[in-house]
Design goal:
By secondary structure, the protein is mainly alpha-helical. It contains 14 helices and 4 strands. It has helices at about 1-5, 15-25, 30-40, 50-65, 65-80, 100-125, 130-135, 150-155, 160-185, 185-205, 225-230, 240-245, 265-270, 280-290, and strands spanning about 90, 225, 265, 280. The strands form 2 sheets. The chain has a two-stranded parallel sheet. Helix 3 runs antiparallel to helix 4 and helix 9 (about 160-185) packs across helix 10. It is globular, with a radius of gyration of 20 Å. About 30% of the residues are buried.
Length: about 290
């Protein structure tokens, strides 16, 4: 659907309001699109590894970021979940001003995350030595175990890996350039499509981890939805089940989704992020109260 929105829709002679409605509606399909990419990241979309990788690359090109880069970023998320280098909503009042923390937080949950993925389209063309330093800074060793720097060297910074990323980035930039040319003076409709896409991705991504206990690598929230909506997003809302069983195909997650007192409805889980970032001192206070109880 997104490929149709980028290439075929602007060629159809329909009124701008209708084009706007159709594009925004297609933008709402961003969540299941990411869910399909997510299945491919874990090697679960198609049974044959090569077919799975090719399908993931094709989806990611239309999505707006190289598949191999998205895969590394997501596997990093699993590796470092709730560790000091992966607590997106947490800030230290002794190191960062509250107003700065709030600014960064609201940018991230509105458009920042998706724009960061778009930035990969340009960053991947930096020299390999520069990329190695940037990636290594995001892959620290923690808890006495190795980080992901060695994996990064093999997967995304190798000659073949970086070539694939750059080819996919070029194809994405070409696709987006063609879309801008096709929409011409109706470019604002295309902007609406990407606005919906960036908002959905940026809002939903961290909602399952916002405010959850620190240093619990496999913990996430299961956010409840009607069954039809769960199928729409391939049970991605059963997020704790996914973190505990990352190699389990989406259709089996409900059977492994337990319930804990911190779980809540999906909409509430997403919207509570608008309360703002959380000072790290809040977690220390909460843990102390829990111990006293």
């Amino acid at each position: 659907m997104h490929l149709i929105a980028l290439t075929l829709l602007p060629a159809i002679h329909v009124s701008t309001p209708i084009l706007w409605v159709v594009c925004v509606s297609i933008g709402l399909a961003t969540t299941p699109m990411w869910a399909l990419i997510h299945e491919a990241i874990h090697g679960l979309l198609l049974p044959l590894p090569r077919a799975n990788a090719m399908a993931g690359r094709a989806l990611a090109i239309v999505f707006g970021a190289p598949f191999r880069a998205l895969r590394f970023a997501h596997l990093r998320h699993h590796r470092y979940n709730r560790s000091p280098c992966a607590r997106e909503e947490v800030y230290d009042p002794l190191k960062q001003k509250k107003v700065v923390a709030y600014f960064h937080h609201y940018v991230r949950i509105t458009v920042g995350l998706y724009f960061g993925e778009i930035a990969l389209l340009f960053l991947c063309f930096l020299p390999r030595a520069v990329l190695r330093k940037l990636v290594a800074a995001q892959c620290p060793a923690i808890d006495g175990t190795p980080g992901m720097a060695a994996f990064a060297d093999r997967d995304i910074l190798s000659v073949d890996g970086l070539r694939e990323i750059r080819i996919d980035a070029f194809l994405t930039l070409t696709l987006f350039g063609i879309a801008v040319w096709l929409y011409a003076d109706r470019w604002f409709v295309l902007l609406g499509l990407f606005g919906v896409r960036s908002l959905l991705i940026s809002q939903v991504d961290h909602a399952f981890h916002h405010g959850t206990p620190l240093d619990e690598k496999y913990f996430a929230l299961n956010l409840s939805l009607p069954r039809w909506a769960e199928r729409w997003m391939l049970n991605f809302n059963r997020h704790r089940a996914h973190h505990c069983y990352p190699q389990l195909p989406w259709k089996y997650l409900p059977a492994h989704a337990d319930r804990c007192e911190s779980d809540m409805g999906f909409l509430r889980g997403v919207l509570r992020q608008w309360k703002g970032p959380i000072a790290i001192t809040h977690f220390a206070t909460r843990d102390t109260k829990s111990d006293d109880a």
